[in-house]
Amino acid sequence: MYTLKEMRTLPPGKYRLEDNLYLIVRDARRYISFIYTFAQKRREIYLGALSKEVLTVAKQKAAQCRLLLIQGLDPKEVRDDNKKEIERKTVTLHEYYDKLLPIILNAKQLHGANSKRKYTHLPYTYIMPVLGDMPIAKITTEDIADFLKPLWMRIPPTALKLRLVLESIFAYAKKEGLYKGDNPAVFKQNLDMYLPPYGKIHETQHQRCTTNEELQHFLKLMAVWHWWFPEALLPLMIMLTVVLATRVNECCDLSWTEINLNNNTIVLPKERKKFKKGDPFIIPLSKQALWIINEIRNLNTNSSTLIFLRNDGTKLHKDNVRKFMGTVCTSLHGTRSNFRNWCARNNISSEVAELSLMHAVSPNATTRSYLRDDFMDMRIEAMQKWADYILPMEILTASFLTDVQKAKLKAVPYHEKGRGWVGLYRDQWNLGL
């Protein structure tokens, strides 16, 4: 048996202190290890650098390890299991989610900031300030219910997203052994004992929509706006979106490379489609759409590929378009509802109508696998009829304006405060539109 003083002067080598307990000297390093054989494999457990305190503790740990070996257990595996159990009981929800977030984003393959916001923004805004410092292993259904209750009644859509995020977090934690028992964020036969059903506290709000007659009048004002102030891109963008029955971002981010004037079509790549999959989507161009595109081409002298780019290099942003539409009778997405209702009332087949809206032609997967026609000839006819109905060429070109109406408009400085679009919309000059 070596004294501590002797241990500090021994040359490099391995020195037995007692059964399975060794001093290892390697260059300037001196440490204690428990070396043993289990399942015909040599194993070593590091017990710490040489010191009086470490030596005392090492002897105690060696006795515990020998007892485990007598019981047929691998001391190293028992130690690792104990470490995992300690980690399971101490790792907080915030710490775990920081590590988990990249895994979730990779698994979900989300596109765009809005889609990722559910996982990147909402949890850190709502969940972490309340539950983030709690050990994930100790969070209960009651804790989650107490957290969700005030949000569940006040902002149900956000609360539902947060519950789904929590359910995903605990599903991962269960799989990794950090949480024992049932998932505490599951709703059925769990949180439903504390919270009312989502459907009973929240009614889905659809995008604002108006009648076809009001939409026709609104587009008439858009046409007058364009005649009065041709440099404005906003009325052109709104009219083009309506006659194409597209989504706001699909039209606002349109580029010249996507427009094929030889075939009178727009070829939308799958990256710009809502679900980012499938073949490029072809949108037929009506006479009205071609006229609007030609007007934009006359205005757009910028070399950029985007068609709604001002000559000063600034882009017509979809958020600004949505903000503007918040002041009028309808939303742009709501005009797609006008188109769908018009199709139903004018004997346009459901397949043609849904495909024109870039929807699946059927909710049934088997039907979709067989129904592969793009119905292009029928869609060309339908889109032209829709454009003729909602925005006739006479209205679009503002040829209906009388000389008196034109004189009144020309007499109004467009940029004068309180005038412009607001004056036109409120008919401040009694134009009789």
From TrEMBL:
Q: Which Pfam families match?
A: Arm-DNA-bind_3, Phage_int_M, Phage_integrase
Biological process (GO) annotations held by this record are: DNA integration; DNA recombination
Q: Give the highest taxon in the source lineage.
A: Bacteria
Swiss-Prot/TrEMBL keywords = DNA integration, DNA recombination, DNA-binding
Residues covered by the Tyr recombinase domain = 205-383
Organism field: Faecalibacterium prausnitzii
* Protein name per UniProt: Tyrosine-type recombinase/integrase
Is-annotated flag, keyword Nuclease? no
Gene3D superfamilies, per database record: 1.10.150.130, Integrase, DNA-binding domain, Intergrase catalytic core
Which family is this sequence assigned to?
Belongs to the 'phage' integrase family.
